Amino acid sequence: MTQPLTGLIAATYTPMHEDGSLNLDAVPAMVDYLERSGVRGIYICGSTGEGVSLTGVERCDVAEAYISAAKGRLRTIVQVGHNSIAEARQLASHAQRCGADAFSAIPPFYYKIETMQMLVDCAAQIAAGAPELPFYYYHIPAFTGTSVDMVDFMSAAGLRIPNLVGLKYTAHKVFEFQACRELNNGRFDVVWGADEMLLSGLGVGARGAIGSTYNIAAPLYRGIIDAYDRQDMETAQELQMRSVALVRLLNKYPFHAATKVVLELYGLEAGPCREPLASLSKAQKAQLAIDLEESGCWEWLRPGEAAATKSKHAASNGVAARE
Fold this sequence. Notes:
Elements lengths: L6 E5 L15 H11 L3 E4 L11 H15 L4 E5 L5 H14 L3 E4 L10 H12 L7 E5 L1 H4 L5 H11 L3 E6 L4 H9 L6 E4 L5 H6 L4 E4 L2 H16 L3 H18 L4 H11 L16 H14 L1 H5 L3 H12 L7
Parallel strand pairs: 1-2, 1-8, 2-3, 3-4, 4-5, 5-6, 6-7
């Protein structure tokens, strides 16, 4: 139903005003910036985009704004998961009507899903809301509490859900990711979802990756991919360690709020996070800027010169980038 998702897919942030209302006027500039940074697509209303904290109407408005701005430029995947399966189906139908390229869903998570068959049943009902769109199940057990074996799930769901094409895998079980990729002779498009472990994903065959820090450091991650493709593991490891350092620094603060502040430092309107996520105080914002500078991250983060240099080197040597 679709070409596989390749390269970097930014899990987009939802721009907000200081009062927590949506700032949809900021979306076109965000899409322009992301396209320039080298990402290949955007993942809308996921964990990064605070989809679960938005109303149904707001989620539709955010999806429409991003799809409209990105059409013909970046591939668009809308996350529609909800504790109400009926609501998730409606959001899936809306994504199809709006022209999204694909949709994705976490399972209901308040009442925990404990059996593989129940997970298949829930996913099938959601996927049926947009039968003409490719569907990616979103596996993020740290948030959903659903720890069903993904190889078993994909095997069963593939028989039940006609438009299931893949899996967004946000966990650290590299062996399970690899097994899902190789299932049924590589039938499913399994997309990597741990930024600070991108190199690990590449090592077991990842072709596409969805992540939060691709919003602010896409050139760095493109450098990792380029270095891996030309078998320069020393450079790939060096660049991956920069990603690890960046994630560790951001995790000293409320992570998503801190990443939004970095976008603001780039001159983009990102705004605060919505409660219950915390936002940064003025003092924290000032300290984050100091930490970025003192850690050395700021030297390469914004211009991405180190990663960009690696990409140019790869291109000049005729190496085809994975993305």
